[in-house]
């Protein structure tokens, strides 16, 4: 089982000729071709690889969708990072779902800002803006209501597009269902076990209803500024009721998470969505038939207030989420100070706000033609977006500075620890090996920096949350340049340049994600770095945001469980080997296997982030109870290989260092095995260079892996009848 590197079946099996024996083009099982001369497996042993790399995305179009849906994915992941305390589940889930709803509202407001505010309200009345734009000038001279109704079709189309993207043609979930018997009480074992589509469908209906209601409210507030009529008030009340119902449903997890066979709630959410669509049609018709008089102003009436109110709501939700997480955090050393969900949610919101601000700014810059930067910022987008870009560049620069300080301040300690490890591993290294020893020390020191990312993540999350809070200052009519010049003496032009620079930085980030997303599934180097984000984020089912990318574990885990059960029940013994994130998939799979299957399987993991990352980031799902249950399921025929040069993987139960007073006892103490990387620092007689530093990428042909595999195969033979096949 490969990790997030997306290796091919031939690469996983280290063979040139492979054949698919189960699955389809997106994910499946591969074996060596019978006539392949490279197959060196022992007699009675059959190698088989499961390739899931194309399940998270696979095609360029789907990868690009992930890029733009990245904020939705992050907020969805935050839901799964809740504390292990059962009392926090409903509250954290409700808060994350409300934050997810604010992202949908922000998405609509950004598109409405472009269509209604920039184009409909500011550009169409301006002959300078319409000059030379025949594709837009045909709307000029029409009544304001008709203009706004026509340009409002763009947000309607945007809502329909994201609705369509999130509602892909379905597959038969039962085709990938795992055996229902023997499922333990571990929450990790439930990942991929249920059909998530009913919940996603309910969330989708709620978010679509809220999206249309947001568009309606934006239009109705602008209409009310010129004098509210009975129809306007009625439609506004109806819109408010729709939004209140959406919020109420999301705040009741026991209700919305009901079983799939409860169709009453499905009918309620679909009815709510239908009512929202009908109200939208009525609102647009009201614009066409309403009074012709509209109050003139700099921006669309009520739009900037709505935008600032949304940012204030997001800030309040983040604060409440932080308080809840701190109250329910575990005693002792809690990773991310118990604020993992807050950090990821704040990062997702910050990214979504930056996306929205950049969209509005780029369109405003296009419509303003050659207007100077300072004048364009003052007269173009709402001031809230100006504060967003200022907050983004402020958080980015501050995090870069702090990261540099952390690197400098921790370098000596990391190098000291690395030197001690190198001295222990290579006690008799000759003097000529000193350059190689230095390279190994640097690799270990870099690998140990992973733990130092914790305070950086918390720091950036706090700054990202502060960004949404400061946007409300725009309601006072102030720009960042005015406040900084008045209070700090910083020239206004310097601040304006910084804001313009920040806008282009956001554009560069988006462009970089797009390019990385395209190449992530075409070249291995991009896949190893950029593809990690997609694979890890889409592992968790959609439980907060229905517009997040689909979850591949809903297929991969049950499909693996079915295949393993089939092999065992036909008389085979199975050795499961998983690298990196593949070990996480196998862990969830083992917890879904029937009890009788566990007697004939063994588990070999290497480069596994189960404890180092997942147990810290997802304590409610990957904890000591779940890890010990995995060991019991396989009869403790489990070996985990790890090295100090690995920046991602690590030990699961014990590092086995000396002295190690915290080491565990019992069979769990025999799971972790540290191997020396590289195996030597001296060039062997058969080569011209010293052995490579593997880091996270231990090869299946390396001696530590082959020795552990041989041992587990032997233990399988002692426990069960001689297997006909091992995977």
Q: How does the SSE layout of this entry go?
A:
Elements: H1 9-13, E1 18-23, E2 28-32, E3 49-51, H2 60-68, H3 70-80, H4 89-123, H5 127-130, H6 134-137, H7 144-151, H8 153-166, H9 197-224, H10 230-250, H11 253-256, H12 263-289, H13 303-327, H14 340-367, H15 373-379, H16 383-425, H17 434-447, H18 453-470, H19 480-488, H20 492-520, H21 524-529, H22 531-537, H23 553-569, E4 574-579, H24 581-590, H25 595-598, E5 601-606, H26 610-617, H27 624-633, E6 638-642, E7 672-674, H28 703-719
Parallel strand pairs: 4-5, 5-6, 6-7
Antiparallel strand pairs: 1-2, 2-3
Helix pairs in contact: 2-20, 3-4, 3-14, 4-7, 4-8, 4-9, 4-13, 4-14, 7-12, 8-9, 9-10, 9-12, 10-12, 13-14, 13-18, 14-16, 14-18, 14-20, 16-17, 16-18, 16-20, 19-20, 23-24
InterPro entries: AB_hydrolase_fold (IPR029058)
Organism: Micromonospora taraxaci
Region (Disordered): 676-700
């Amino acid at each position: 089982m490969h990790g997030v590197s997306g290796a091919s079946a031939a690469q996983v099996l280290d063979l040139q000729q492979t054949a698919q024996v189960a699955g389809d083009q997106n994910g499946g099982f591969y074996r060596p071709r019978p006539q392949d001369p490279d197959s060196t497996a022992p007699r009675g042993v059959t190698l088989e690889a499961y390739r899931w790399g194309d399940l998270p995305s696979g095609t360029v179009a789907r990868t690009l969708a992930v890029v733009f849906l990245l904020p939705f994915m992050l907020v969805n992941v935050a839901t799964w990072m809740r504390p292990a305390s059962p009392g926090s589940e409903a509250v954290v889930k409700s808060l994350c779902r409300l934050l997810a709803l604010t992202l949908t509202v922000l998405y609509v407001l950004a598109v409405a800002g472009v269509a209604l505010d920039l184009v409909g309200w500011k550009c169409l009345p301006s002959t300078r803006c319409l000059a030379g734009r025949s594709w837009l000038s045909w709307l000029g001279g029409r009544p304001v209501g008709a203009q706004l109704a026509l340009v409002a079709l763009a947000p309607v189309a945007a809502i329909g597009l994201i609705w369509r993207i999130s509602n892909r043609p379905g597959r038969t979930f039962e085709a990938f269902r795992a055996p229902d018997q023997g499922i333990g009480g571990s929450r990790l074992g439930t990942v991929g076990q249920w059909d998530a589509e009913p919940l996603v469908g309910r969330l989708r209906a709620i978010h679509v209803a809220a999206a249309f209601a947001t568009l309606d409210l934006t239009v109705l507030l602008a209409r009310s500024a010129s004098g509210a009529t009975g129809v306007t008030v009625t439609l506004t009340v109806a819109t408010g009721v729709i939004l209140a119902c959406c919020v109420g449903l999301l705040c009741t997890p026991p209700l919305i998470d009901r079983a799939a066979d409860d169709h009453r709630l499905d009918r309620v959410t679909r009815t709510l969505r239908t009512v929202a669509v009908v109200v939208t049609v009525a609102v647009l018709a009201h614009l066409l038939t309403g009074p012709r008089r509209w109050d003139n102003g700099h921006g669309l009436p009520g739009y900037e207030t709505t935008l600032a109110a949304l940012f204030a709501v997001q800030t309040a939700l983040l604060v409440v989420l932080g308080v809840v997480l701190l109250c329910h955090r575990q005693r002792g050393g809690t990773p991310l100070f118990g604020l993992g969900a807050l950090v990821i949610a704040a990062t997702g919101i910050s990214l979504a706000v930056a996306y929205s601000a950049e969209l509005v700014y780029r369109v405003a810059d296009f419509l303003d033609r050659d207007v100077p930067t300072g004048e364009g910022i003052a007269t173009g987008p709402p001031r809230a977006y100006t504060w967003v870009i200022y907050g983004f560049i402020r958080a980015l620069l501050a995090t870069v500075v702090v990261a540099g300080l952390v690197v400098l301040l921790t370098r000596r300690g990391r190098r000291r620890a690395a030197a001690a490890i190198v001295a222990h591993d290579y006690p008799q290294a000759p003097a000529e090996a000193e350059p190689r020893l230095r390279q190994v020390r640097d690799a270990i020191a870099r690998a140990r920096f992973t733990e130092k990312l914790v305070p950086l993540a918390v720091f950036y999350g706090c700054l990202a949350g502060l960004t949404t809070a400061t946007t409300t200052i725009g309601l006072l009519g102030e720009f960042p340049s005015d406040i900084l010049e008045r209070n700090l003496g910083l020239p206004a032009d310097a601040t304006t340049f910084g804001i313009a620079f920040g806008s282009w930085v956001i554009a560069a980030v988006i462009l970089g994600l797009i390019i990385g997303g395209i190449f992530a599934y075409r070249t291995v180097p991009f896949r190893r770095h950029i593809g990690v984000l997609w694979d890890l984020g889409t592992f968790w089912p959609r439980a907060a945001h229905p517009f997040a990318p689909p979850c591949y574990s809903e297929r991969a885990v049950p499909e693996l469980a079915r295949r393993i059960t089939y092999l065992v029940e036909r008389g085979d013994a199975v050795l499961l080997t998983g690298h990196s994130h593949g070990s996480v998939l196998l862990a969830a799979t083992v917890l879904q296997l029937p009890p009788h299957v566990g007697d004939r399987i063994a588990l070999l993991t290497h480069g596994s982030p189960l404890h180092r990352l997942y147990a810290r980031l997802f304590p409610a799902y990957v904890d000591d109870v779940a890890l010990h249950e995995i060991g019991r399921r396989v009869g403790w025929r489990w070996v985990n290989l790890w090295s100090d040069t690995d920046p991602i993987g690590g030990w699961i139960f014990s590092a086995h260092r000396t002295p190690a007073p915290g080491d565990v006892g019992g069979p769990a103490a025999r799971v972790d095995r540290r191997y020396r990387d590289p195996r030597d620092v001296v060039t062997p007689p058969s080569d011209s260079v010293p052995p490579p530093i593997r880091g996270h990428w231990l090869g299946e042909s390396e001696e530590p892996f082959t020795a552990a595999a041989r041992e587990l195969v032997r233990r399988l033979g002692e426990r069960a009848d001689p297997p006909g096949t091992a995977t």
